[in-house]
Write a structure and sequence with these properties.
Elements lengths: L13 H18 L3 H7 L7 H6 L8 E2 L2 E2 L3 H14 L1 H21 L2 H12 L5 E4 L15 E5 L2 E12 L6 E8 L2 E8 L5 E5 L11 E12 L11 H35 L1 E2 L2 E2 L4 H30 L4 H25 L11 H13 L4 H13 L7
Parallel strand pairs: 3-6
Antiparallel strand pairs: 1-2, 4-5, 5-9, 6-7, 8-9, 10-11
């Protein structure tokens, strides 16, 4: 049974379908057979990194330096397929490519790009992106991490929180206040004073790594400062890359949830007939399909605009907000259709629903994206007061 009732398939090119087929095969081969165990054990499977790199998924939308240089739509399709496997696996690719690698590609020197991007594209070096702090999430301008100049070096002091991959990263993109505003730095994670501690006992994103970072007098050479990163605009440009991927990715979790619920309802017998033959079940499935396809069309529209160079930040916010809201509703409804069996890891919707609580929160909460859209409508910024 297909969930593509609008035949969105017909809107894709042969190349886009081929990308989807390759990534879907990777997910079926490398992720689906193991994800329940990884989630249960709260373990990110570093052993799959070479397979992700070999498929060209790390920094796949970047050009040059060994990156695949694929289109925005192909990148979005790949994120949708990865998140159909698990949000944590898609998050790894997003942090590596859309945040860490994107920061270097957009704001780094030619030397920094040549040093890091080829290795990161091959999965030989892992990056993380340190913006959020314990007391500065939705308001990154309130960050307290500070970098002071000391001769030819910088000394960084502060703390970051909820930083994906930090404990396994080789390089950390750290954003800090300076006497001249916010700047970005590439920090060798082996540096004295840099400590990354995984956050334990999570109820969401269990097959992923998020960390606290402590920066205690970390010395960073001037050559490791991102020369083209000035002010909050710099990290926001990277966040928009990640948000675009989320607008697609969350729909992979939603689609997988719907497919599981549809298959289960077709097999489950109640009162002598399939559960899928019940009116209330069909109403649920129909609403889920409607929301999913509406958001898939929106994501594709955003991808086409991004490839054309016309995508605006508020449009990305609309995609991220709509997809995450729809995906979490779909995952929850799918879990309900599964009844008691839906609370185990044998079936994916509850795992997806738990993960989507994080996806909905990171890279901008519902409230932040609502205000971005509100500002686009009214011309008034309502983030303060």
């Amino acid at each position: 049974m297909t969930t593509d009732l609008l035949d969105i398939e017909a809107l894709l090119s042969d190349e886009e379908r081929a990308t989807r087929a390759r990534v879907r095969a990777l997910v079926d081969r490398e992720i689906r057979p193991h994800i329940a165990d990884w989630f249960d054990a709260a373990r990110f499977p570093t052993e799959i990194v070479p397979a992700l790199a070999a498929e060209g998924l790390l920094g796949m939308h970047l050009h040059g330096h060994g990156c695949a240089g694929r289109s925005a739509v192909e990148y979005g399709i790949a994120m949708q397929e990865l998140e159909a496997g698990d949000s944590g696996i898609r998050t790894f690719v997003s942090v590596q490519g859309s945040l860490a690698m994107s920061a270097i590609a957009k704001h780094g020197s030619a030397e920094q790009q040549a040093e890091w991007l080829p290795r990161m594209a091959r999965g030989e070096a892992i990056g993380c992106f340190g913006l959020t702090e314990p007391n500065a999430g939705s308001d990154p301008g309130a960050m307290q991490t500070f970098a002071r100049r000391d001769g030819d070096d910088w000394i960084l002091d502060g703390a970051k929180r909820w930083i994906g991959l930090a404990s396994i990263a080789d390089v950390a993109v750290i954003w800090a206040q300076t006497d001249d505003g916010i700047r970005g730095f590439l920090v060798d994670t082996a540096s004295a004073g840099f400590t990354a501690t995984p956050i334990a006992q999570k109820l969401s994103m269990r097959a992923s790594i998020q960390c606290d970072i402590a920066l205690d007098g970390v010395r960073v050479p001037e050559r490791m400062r991102l020369p083209n990163a000035r002010g909050l605009r710099a990290p926001f440009e990277c966040l928009n890359e990640a948000r675009f991927g989320i607008a697609w990715g969350a729909l992979g979790a939603a689609r997988d949830s719907l497919e599981v619920a549809l298959a289960y309802a077709g097999e489950r017998q109640v009162f002598g007939r399939p559960l899928s033959g019940m009116q209330l079940t069909q109403a649920r499935l129909a609403e889920m399909a409607l929301e999913l396809q509406q958001c898939q069309l929106l994501a594709l529209h955003l991808g086409r605009r991004k490839d054309a160079g016309t995508l605006e930040p508020h449009q990305i916010s609309m995609g991220k907000l709509a997809s995450c809201r729809a995906a979490i509703r779909i995952a929850r409804e799918a879990r309900a259709i599964l009844g008691g069996n839906g609370i185990t890891l044998d079936l994916s919707p509850m795992r997806h629903a738990a993960n989507l609580e994080s996806v909905r929160t990171y890279e901008g909460t519902d409230e932040v994206h609502t205000l971005v859209i509100g500002q686009a409508l009214t011309g008034q910024a309502a983030f303060r007061g």
